[in-house]
Amino acid sequence: MIIMVAGYFVIPLRLRYVWLLIGSYTFYMCAEPVYGLIMLLSTMISYAGAILMEKQKGDKQRKKYLITIIILDILPLLFFKYTDFLLDTADGVFSLAGGSVSARLNIILPVGISFYTFQTMGYVIDVYRQRLKAERNVFHYALYVSFFPQLVAGPIERSVNLLPQIKDIGRKRNFDPERIRDGVMLILWGLFQKMVIADRLSITVDYVFDHWKEYGYGGLEMAVATVLFAFQIYMDFGGYTAIARGCARIFGIELMQNFRQPYLATSIKDFWRRWHVSLTSWFTDYLYIPLGGSRKGKARKYLNILIVFALSGLWHGAAWHFVVWGLLHALYRCAGEMIEGRRKKEQQQGVLSKLFSMGITFCLVVFAWLFFRAGDLKQAFGMIVQGIRTPHFNGWGWGQDRSQLVIALVALLTVALVDILHERKIAVYEKLRNSLLPFRWLGFAGLLFTVFLFGVYGRDFDVAQFIYFRF
């Protein structure tokens, strides 16, 4: 990032997007050089395909091109992510009849392929819907696909938002100290969420989920661990998004906000308006609405919800416990739709009703997170059964000193306070930004030293990658 920023503000304006493109591919190919070729293939298919599709006069021809491009674009994702899943599923089915299929291929999943594939598909669909013209500058389009701050874990940007900003890079991206400061503050906030909270919570969460059977953990202990995972994944993914947005802002590019206080939601529908917003809106615009949305009756609406959430689960991971996680949210949504009128009336009665709805929603979300975090369905159901049989604490420890958990919880309260203030339309950073200079520097220095002093790092710490890197 330091090298990219230094070069960005030194080279001529007209070459800055080329500099970002070279840096993005270098960054991505550090993991595995061949991954860059796979991304380049996806880029060229969608780039050339969109131009050819746009030249077609009849809607029927354009639709044929659209379907062909999407199939070609999604094939690498299907191969790398779902081949072993399909083989495992087939092996499970055949084993019931006493047979078996060939072993797993153990294919390594290219980092970020789920994200940039959805981004290229969204672009092609937008061109088909004539929301924008097909991009002729191949370097602009390649940077749209590979822009390194959000490449490996989103947010999944829309072409109508990101492409115009990329095309504008060579015109007016001068050095702006305020923009740099804002970007650095976002990066520090993301590091605070990731290093001080998420990585510290992950130690306890991993310890309980890895030893639940061996140590005979009780229901309360496993429930606490699952609640901690709910906050771990929020801080982990929210932290990544803040870092990505901060890095992009330094270059003068604004990425979409991916989280809007999700655990203050009063329903599952509301939760998905706040959680992983870029993915939710992608599925809504490019799958749910084309399937018919809510326009073809209630039965079709509920079926569409089930399809979308099942595919959302599969998008997160090629395993059945992710599908169950998605289907649980689909059932929550369908049930919520059935009682929506009565629930709205209850919420209008006052604060207590709203708090009750928030509590119920949080409990439902946490229960579903159990399936998301578990290694497979066997572990998820095993933990549920064991928790019912022994609902009390067994006192086998949390995998780390309790003082470390206290640090994480205090930091988490800070994030919760910021979320509550944002929910009340009080922009904390704007307040700090407009305050006197000593207070601004105090806030900056306080965040910086908190990350250095309380961040989880060092020789004895197994660095935890971002959770969404694996998707």
Report on the structure:
With 471 residues, this protein is mainly α. It has helices spanning 2-8, 16-29, 33-55, 59-96, 113-128, 138-146, 148-151, 159-167, 169-172, 177-211, 219-250, 268-274, 277-288, 298-316, 320-338, 340-347, 351-373, 377-389, 402-423, 428-433, 437-454. The chain has 2 domains: 2-172, no CATH class; 182-454, no CATH class. The chain is built from 21 helices and no strands.
Main sheet characteristics = none
Structural class: mainly alpha
Residue runs with pLDDT of under 50 for 5 or more positions: none
Amino-to-carboxy terminus distance: 23 Å
Our count of helices gives 21
User: How many E strands?
Assistant: 0
Rounded to the nearest angstrom, the radius of gyration is 23 Å
Q: How much of the residues is beta strand, in percent?
A: under 5%
User: What overall form do the CA principal axes indicate?
Assistant: globular
Mean pLDDT: 88
Helix content percent band: over 70%
| Strand/helix succession | HHHHHHHHHHHHHHHHHHHHH
In short:
The chain has 471 residues and is mostly helical.
Compile the SSE list and pairings.
Layout: H1 2-8, H2 16-29, H3 33-55, H4 59-96, H5 113-128, H6 138-146, H7 148-151, H8 159-167, H9 169-172, H10 177-211, H11 219-250, H12 268-274, H13 277-288, H14 298-316, H15 320-338, H16 340-347, H17 351-373, H18 377-389, H19 402-423, H20 428-433, H21 437-454
Which keywords apply here?
single chain, globular, 21 helices, mainly alpha, 2 domains, 471 residues
